[in-house]
Write a structure and sequence with these properties.
- The complex is a heterotrimer of chains A (about 325), B (about 550) and C (about 325).
- Chain A has about 325 residues and is an all-alpha fold.
- Chain A is about 70% helix and about 0% strand.
- Chain A has helices spanning about 30-40, 45-65, 100-135, 135-150, 155-175, 175-190, 190-205, 210-215, 220-255, 270-275, 285-314.
- The longest helix of chain A is centred in the middle third of the chain and has 37 residues, at about 100-135.
- Chain A is globular and about 75 Å long.
- By secondary structure, chain B is α+β, with helices and mostly antiparallel strands.
- Chain B contains 17 helices and 19 strands.
- In chain B, strands 1, 8, 9, 10, 11, 12, 13, 14, 15, 16 and 17 form an eleven-stranded mixed β-sheet that branches. In chain B, strands 4-5-7-6 form a four-stranded antiparallel β-sheet, covered by helices on one side.
- Chain C has about 325 residues and is mainly α.
- The chains are: A mainly alpha (about 325), B alpha+beta (about 550), C mainly alpha (about 325).
């Protein structure tokens, strides 16, 4: 990925450790879930985050079909216009309705963010757990592969993948096809950071008393991993997603700027921002509207994530 | 917000302001210097946009426009262009042409020297051409610009050890022999790598840019940041009005603009990287702003040898369905000029009229029907390199073809290097090539040959879509070798251009403008369709 | 019930200090393998990717003889395995090859200045964001679920969510208005004076600050729930000591983790900042090299960054043991 923040860091928010094995006695999963939601419901900010995100997702899902204006209709007489009756949020530099493009772009951005995060979690967490818990040769090999990939020029891979499979992806999945392809390819080389974070936490967790105790009791490794180590990382995974969302949305814009992302005339939040930037001083709203949406998503997701983490941790 | 914050505004010469406003394309209106008492001006700070560093200061190795801008300050050629883009003497004070039109004999100015004081001789000239064509040099502009010279191709291919067409007659005389009579030979010798280098100094690479034959010499090169040039006191027409010429590298033209408006840059913009279009409204009334049509044309070209675009009727239908006026003026805000022809406005031979395929949706639909195409099922892909405002332009084309013809066109954005390799595929193997692509051509030297013959003659290297027309070939080839009578040449090119327009060799869209900012207090710089020209080096004066 | 009294062989008390030397030696021995892997991967992806460095450079001037000559000059006419082998041989002698784009200039010369610029700029920005981010994150954590936390974390998130290509024009616009009013203003771009650092550092640090403060807050919250903190407080240790020695130290683990890879991201990730402020770093150079398919330059940045990342990751792994003596790398 190219436009990385100078430091692409992912949050580690491990939950304080689980009560000792057996200390809770036998609890029903049901009641745990109920407890969890009750704790979550007490956190007003988290509930707000949940409601806002649900709203944003609903708009992305159903907004386009309810929209009056078409996001791709060009109006030569209304280029860069300010908000008016016809265009509630004004128009872009081709006279296209900003509100309509925001809603259709939202769908693209959320889809890509969700999908990239899922890949990152699947690869990063699995490998990080394996390296940190199993240690030895497994750790050595995984961390060396990670070392290889940290400085690997992902952009080159994106170009290759876009050139070989781009056309087929576009034919099959439309404007978003190639973007999904390229973003997916980049996820395949961007897991090392998540892996190192999960590993660092696992290295510490595996030396904690209750894990050592379970080991000395002869519990098998898989059980320890799932019962004692993985739950500690649940909070971390949730929080990592919240911080990464904005990075993914912004990086998508950079891919599009290099001709590797979303196909015109379709839009995305990041692309809307980057294409409006030259007009920042003359038509500020065109930058402000998608930026505000991006900010809303980031804040809502973060508060939601914080709430989930606290509910787990209590 | 009008940008008029430049500190020197009040000291501005009113006459100079008048001169700048009256400056029309190709017309020199040298700003009178009467009001300037002191001849010596200060430094000039010049933003070189679109680069983070230069490729090389060796004219034979450079390949970037920005590099050639600097090289033109450092080295002199045998000839140069004046503000009207006519060829005038430079290091050669005169030349003669043999009766068969094949041999040009140049006489060097008397007593000229390089910046280190050593004399400029015929040996240096001969070495310069050999160096530019030598495969070991690793350049490619030499073989491109000098292909007309006898033996140049052999030298470039490595089958000869010296260029047979460039000969020393005596210390001050050089003869250049070309393969066929040509009116643009001198013009091409003003450009690119034909700047004279010191053979002796070139032995040490550390001398790059320091031992020069032009008005300036290199003082410092801060890698990744910029260059500092000082006037060359040994130049035959020394620059006395500028203390220093500082080039500043800016990758982004918006950054250059920020530097300009905070008073840190005096010259900004070029035909390749003009003042950002979004900033033109706020500077267009400033006396610093200069605008002239650029010698480049944006166009759509087709893969002409395979279906569907082997059918000229379809190409014509598409041409009639593009409202260029709306594209240039409404969408791009008048920062470009719409065109229906190939030669840019102001270019030699562009004064002869061409009947274009004007915006006429009804005619377009009729042609489409004639081509037997059902717009409901027909589609094609328009490919383009992602850069600048390309995406806006093709999105507009897509919408116009949809609206006016009912054709749903697919757009294929390509990363730039991928785009250039796909163009090559299109040329090498049309069946695996692009269907249609959006591109640009800019002049290397001001001659119609550089636009028509090098672009659209059958199978020439730039003709990626293999458009071919026998009459066009005959007319342009005749014009290329016509020397004495420019009116006749222009007429031949005009007939050829009309064919290429009618048969849609290109679908021309618009000409860019050279929108630049030059501090009003700087004198002696002319802005032309081919960027900056300096009619007289002694007239170049920086701000006080 | 877990037998807390029995000492397992892994228990910290009976464990010998980790053999740091063997960890260091193993890592350094693996470095050449890592380098071969990453250069090979980069080479093969570049080899397969569309785009031809010579065509990209020459544009449409398609003179077959000149094209072949340039390919030969740069060894691009050799079979792929020979091209790679030649590169490796050069690397062994410390030769990073020569740039295609910059007319045969040695890659080492092209990178040397830029690496120093990128590292110093990135280092200052990272240092600043650590200096501010850690206290802010701690402040927020100690005021968990109170207004103090919400009021600090929301702006941090906002800073984090603003792309640099939006933040920069906003700063430029502010700076221009300072200039227009004759107030003290900063150079809009360039490199070399202390003033040139201000805006790029602000932009680079802004994003990091958001990240690091969130990260710190999360870790401190985690540690605050741990037994040993409760114990320390229970023992009656002053809260300030608990916070610095117990909480902060243990919360540093993930922060230290991200500093290692940060070296690579600071260099390649700063390309927007470099290009909009005309800074001669390697971030822009590396992106430009990919766009121009200047393979030796791409490989050069990859090699330099990989060495840096491997060394930094080694250093962080060793730091784990210092911060949390229970962590063992040699298990």
């Amino acid at each position: 990925m190219t436009e990385r923040r100078a430091l692409v860091v992912e949050a580690v928010e491990p939950v304080p450790h689980e009560p000792l094995p057996g200390a809770l006695g036998v609890r029903k999963a049901e009641s745990l879930a109920t407890l969890f939601w009750r704790r979550f419901g007490r956190n007003a900010l988290a509930v707000t985050g949940l409601v806002v995100m649900a709203g944003v997702i609903l708009i992305a899902l159903f907004g386009p079909s309810l929209m009056m204006a078409d996001p791709n209709t060009i109006d030569y007489t209304a280029i860069n216009s300010l908000p008016n009756g016809k265009h509630p949020l004004g128009t872009d530099n081709l006279g296209r309705d900003t509100l309509a493009r925001l809603i259709s772009g939202l769908r693209v951005s959320l889809l890509v963010a969700g999908y990239v995060e899922l890949l990152d979690i699947a690869l990063g967490v699995t490998l990080g757990l394996a390296a940190g818990y199993l240690g030895g040769k497994v750790d050595f090999v995984i961390t060396r592969i990670a070392d290889v990939l940290f400085a690997f020029p992902g952009l080159l891979l994106a170009i290759l993948v876009a050139a070989i499979f781009g056309e087929a992806a576009t034919d099959r999945f439309g404007g978003i096809g190639r973007l999904a392809l390229v973003a997916g390819a980049l996820s395949l080389v961007s897991w090392p950071l998540m892996t190192r974070l999960v590993r660092s936490q696992t290295l510490s967790i595996r030396e904690r008393e209750y894990v050592l105790a379970a080991e000395s009791l002869g519990a098998n490794r898989r059980r320890i991993l799932w019962r004692h180590v993985a739950p500690q990382l649940l909070g971390l995974v949730v929080t990592t997603v919240t911080l990464n969302v904005s990075g993914v949305i912004i990086n998508e814009a950079v891919l599009s700027l290099l001709g590797l992302g979303i196909q015109p005339p379709d839009s995305s939040l990041g692309k809307m921002i980057s294409y409006a930037i030259p007009y920042l001083e003359s038509n500020t709203l065109q930058v402000a509207v998608p930026s505000a949406m991006l900010m809303t998503i980031v804040l809502a997701v973060s508060f939601l994530g914080d709430g989930l983490r606290d509910a787990f941790a209590e | 917000m009008k940008d008029l914050t430049h500190a020197n505004l009040s000291r501005r010469s009113l006459l100079a302001a008048g001169g700048a406003l009256l400056a029309t394309p190709l017309l020199t209106s040298s700003a009178p210097r009467a009001l300037t008492q002191d001849a010596g001006g200060g430094p000039i700070r010049w933003s070189l946009t679109g680069v983070s560093d230069l490729v090389s200061l060796d004219p034979a190795k450079a390949s970037d426009q920005q590099g050639f801008t600097v090289i033109a300050m450092l080295y002199g050629g045998l000839v140069k262009l004046d503000a009207k883009l006519l060829v005038v003497p430079s290091l050669a004070e005169s030349w003669s042409v043999s009766d068969d039109g094949l041999t040009y004999t140049f006489t060097l100015r008397d007593g000229i020297t390089f910046s280190d004081g050593t004399p400029i001789t015929a040996d240096d000239v001969v070495w310069t051409f050999n160096h530019a064509l030598d495969p070991k040099t690793g350049g490619w502009t030499g073989p491109y610009y000098f292909t007309l010279i006898d033996g140049a191709d052999e030298m470039a291919a490595g089958t000869a050890t010296e260029v047979s067409g460039v000969k020393k007659i005596d210390d001050a005389t050089v003869a250049i022999t070309i393969k066929q009579p040509s009116a643009y030979c001198l013009s091409s010798l003003s450009a690119g790598p034909s700047k004279i280098l010191s053979k002796a100094a070139a032995a040490d690479p550390a001398n790059e840019g320091k031992v020069t034959s032009g008005p300036f010499m290199l003082k410092r090169w801060n890698r990744g940041q910029g260059l500092g040039l000082a006037p060359n006191p040994n130049f035959y027409e020394p620059v006395t009005g500028v203390s220093e010429l500082n080039f500043i590298f800016n990758q982004d033209s918006e950054t250059g603009y920020q530097l300009y408006r905070t008073g840190e840059v005096d010259i900004l913009g070029s035909s390749q990287d003009p003042v950002p279009a979004s900033r033109v409204p706020e500077v267009q009334d400033s006396p610093d702003f200069r605008s002239t049509p650029a010698f480049n044309t944006r166009y759509v070209a087709f893969n002409n040898t395979i279906a569907p675009f082997d059918d000229v009727t379809l190409r014509q239908a598409l041409a009639h369905a593009v409202d260029r006026d709306t594209l240039a003026n409404a969408v791009l805000g008048g920062t470009v000029s719409p065109t229906e022809r190939i030669l840019p406005a102001g270019f030699p031979a562009s004064d002869l009229p061409i009947t274009g395929l004007a915006f006429d949706p009804a005619a377009g639909k009729e042609l489409l029907a004639k081509a037997g195409i059902d717009p409901a099922t027909f589609t094609f892909t328009l490919s383009y390199g992602v850069e600048g405002d390309n995406e806006r332009v093709v999105t507009v084309l897509q919408s116009m073809w949809q609206e006016n013809l009912g054709i749903a066109v697919k757009l294929e954005p390509l990363e730039l290097a991928t785009f250039s390799s796909r163009l090559n595929d299109t040329y090498q193997d049309p069946t695996n090539g692009l269907q249609a692509y959006y591109s640009i051509w800019g002049a290397d030297y001001p001659d119609p040959q550089n636009f028509l013959s090098t672009q659209l003659q059958t199978d020439v290297g730039n003709n990626n879509g293999h458009w071919s027309n026998a009459d066009f070939d005959t007319l342009t080839k005749e014009a290329d070798t016509t020397v004495e009578d420019f009116a006749k040449r222009a007429d031949l090119y005009n007939q050829a251009e009309q064919i290429a327009v009618d048969q849609v060799g290109w679908l021309p869209l618009f000409n860019a403008k050279v929108n630049v900012l030059v501090r009003d207090c700087i004198e002696g710089i002319e802005v032309t369709g081919m960027d900056y020209q300096f009619p007289e080096w002694s007239a170049l004066v920086g701000c006080p | 019930m877990a037998p807390f009294f029995s000492l397992s062989p892994h228990h910290p008390i009976t464990r010998l200090p980790p053999d740091m030397l063997s960890v260091i030696v193993r890592r350094l021995v693996s470095l050449p393998f890592v380098l071969v892997s990453v250069t090979f991967l980069t080479f093969i992806i570049g080899f397969l990717a569309p785009g031809d460095p010579i065509l990209t450079m020459m544009g449409n001037q398609r003179d077959p003889a000149v094209y072949e000559n340039l390919r030969h000059l740069y060894g691009l006419d050799l079979p792929w395995y020979e091209q790679y082998w030649r590169y490796l041989q050069g690397l062994l002698h410390g030769d990073l090859g020569m740039s295609y784009r910059y007319a045969q200039r040695p890659v080492s010369e092209l990178l040397s200045g830029g690496v120093a610029v990128s590292l110093s700029l990135g280092g200052v920005a990272l240092g600043l964001s650590l200096l501010l981010g850690i206290p802010i994150g701690m402040f927020a954590a100690f005021r968990h679920n109170r207004w103090g936390e919400r009021l600090t974390m929301a702006p941090m998130l906002a800073l984090f969510a603003i792309p640099s290509f939006v933040l920069i024009p906003i700063l430029q616009w502010i700076n221009f208005h300072f200039y227009g009013r004759g107030w003290p203003s900063l150079p809009a771009a360039g490199w070399g004076t202390p003033q040139n650092w201000v805006m790029p550092v602000i932009v680079l640090a802004a994003g990091n600050l958001g990240y690091l403060s969130r990260l710190t807050r999360a870790n401190v919250l985690d540690v605050l729930g741990q037994d040993y903190v409760r114990t320390a407080r229970g023992k009656g240790l002053p809260e300030s000591i608990v916070r610095t020695t117990h909480v902060l130290r243990n919360a540093m683990l993930p922060i230290v983790t991200v500093i290692g890879p940060a070296v690579a991201f600071l260099v390649t990730g700063a390309f927007v900042v470099e290009s909009l402020f005309s800074i001669p770093g390697v971030g822009f150079l590396s992106v430009q090299a990919v766009q121009q398919r200047d393979y030796p330059v791409i490989q050069g940045t990859v090699v330099v960054l990989t060495v840096a990342v491997v060394l930094m990751n080694l250093a962080t792994d060793l730091a784990y043991s210092l911060l949390d003596p229970r962590v063992r790398l040699d298990r």
